[in-house]
Amino acid sequence: MSRLTVDNVVKEFPTRDEPLVVLRGISLELNAGDCVAITGPSGSGKSTLLHILGTLEPPTRGRVILDGEDMATLPDDALARLRNRRIGFVFQDHHLLPQCSVLENVLVPAIARGRVERKLVQRAQDLLARVGLASRMDHRPAELSGGERQRAALARALIHKPALLLADEPTGNLDRSNAAKVAELLLELQSQEGTMLVVATHSLALAARMGRRFELDDGYLRESEPSGVTARAGREST
Questions:
Q1: Residues 144-187: tens digit of each pLDDT
Q2: What is the pTM of this model?
Q3: Which of 26, 88, 30, 34 has its CA nearest to residue 56?
Q4: Can you give the chain as a three-state secondary structure string?
């Protein structure tokens, strides 16, 4: 069973004077199938926390352990492999490649590893069908609506059946109708795949649908609603 452990993570950025402390001793534990929302004001460090969980940014102190692997101890090539195979990303902007078809975009994580096996092409096609894009596989991103592009990005994030799915404001650029559809698909696919999901969002409607909700403020993670996920937030835990 997949497991994520975040142990007393601190993140500081150097300045001309004192370091800017963004995260102050964040601790969190997730198991397969758990879904968590991280809310908080702009600039509170939500994206920074997701980047650390996704190995895109190292913590100043503390540990992030995914399925028994302490990410800080891995050499760069092993860390890149873990990120590619075990972590999926959905961002506010879809980041689809404009010159590639929708199907090719979903296969980008596999293409980065070299030869694309037929079973991965089939999975990409299946995922696109599940997000309602079966008839759009050969289209370019410019030919899709905003909601369709984000659904394609969701399919891409799931191509390798990641243990951990990270979504940073996944509905932030969408109108209300498309935001609701993408949120529904995100939760439906996360449940079906059994992956761990962490969503950073300003949307209270989306956050309310998560199994557990936290607020990040002044560098501390405070639980807003009780649920079944075990989490600790340093001395500011509630």
A1: 999 999 999 999 999 999 999 999 999 988 999 989 999 999 99
A2: 0.90
A3: 88
A4: CCEEEEEEEEEEECCCCCCEEEEEEEEEEEECCCEEEEECCCCCCHHHHHHHHCCCCCCCEEEEEECCEEHHHCCHHHHHHHHHHHEEEECCCCCCCCCCCHHHHHCHHHHCCCCCCHHHHHHHHHHHHHCCCHHHCCCCHHHCCHHHHHHHHHHHHCCCCCCEEEEECCCCCCCHHHHHHHHHHHHHHHHHHCCEEEEECCCHHHHHCCCEEEEEECCEEEEEECCCCCEEECECCC
Instruction: Report the alpha-carbon angle 18-47-67, nearest 5.
Output: 105
Residue of higher predicted confidence among 148 and 225? 148
Whole-angstrom distance, CA of residue 1 vs CA of residue 163: 9
CB contact at 8 A, 200 and 46:
yes
- The phi, psi pair for 169, rounded to 5°, reads 50, 55
Pick from 119, 110, 59: which is nearest to 85 by CA?
110
Which residues, listed in sequence order, are joined to residue 69 by a DSSP beta bridge? 66
| Contacts for 86 with CB less than 8 Å, ≥ 6 apart | 66, 67, 160, 162, 163, 164
Give the pLDDT mean for 97-118: 91
